[in-house]
Amino acid sequence: MIREIRKTDYPQLMKIWESSVLNTHDFLKEEDFNYYKKEIPGYFEYVTLLGFEEGGTLTGFMGIANGNLEMLFIHNDYRGKGIGKKLIQYGIDHLKVTKVDVNEQNEQAVGFYQHIGFQVLERSELDSQGKEYPILHMGL
Question: CB pairs under 8 A, 24+ apart, for 86-91?
C-alpha cells in the first residue's frame, strides 16, 4: 500500500536509504556516504514523501518536488519485487512526475528508469552537491 510519510517514519526512511545505497551505490566513497547520510533527513521537508508499506512495514519511499522524482529508495531485502515501479507509477499518475536525476554510475537505476520510459536529456559531470558523481537528467 502506498501512503503518505509522517515525521515518525523518518528513522525507518533512513534505514531504507542506508540499505538501498549500501547495495546499489558501490561507487560512492565512504566519506561521501557519511556526508549524504547526515544530509538526507534535511531534504525530507522539501519534498512530498510517499512510502510503500507491506505488512505494517515501510519497505520503500520516494520524494517528489515540482514534477521531479528527487529520491526513490527500496530496502535491499525488498528490491526486485515491483515496489519501485509501483511508487514511480503512482508518482507519474497522481503527482505529475516527468523528470528524474540519477547517478550515471548506478546502472541498475538508469536501466530501471529507461524501462519505465524515461530518456536521458542531459548529463552533468557533478552532482547537486558539487561532488564528482556524474548525473543523468532524464525525462518522460
Answer: 86/2, 86/52, 87/2, 87/50, 87/52, 87/60, 87/61, 87/62, 88/62, 88/116, 89/116, 90/2, 90/50, 91/50, 91/62, 91/64
Task: From 65, 51, 68, select the one nearest 15 (Cα to Cα).
Answer: 51
CATH number of the 2-139 domain: 3.40.630.30
For the chain, the domains span 2-139
81-139 tens-digit pLDDT: 999 999 999 999 999 999 999 999 999 999 999 999 999 999 999 998 899 999 999 99
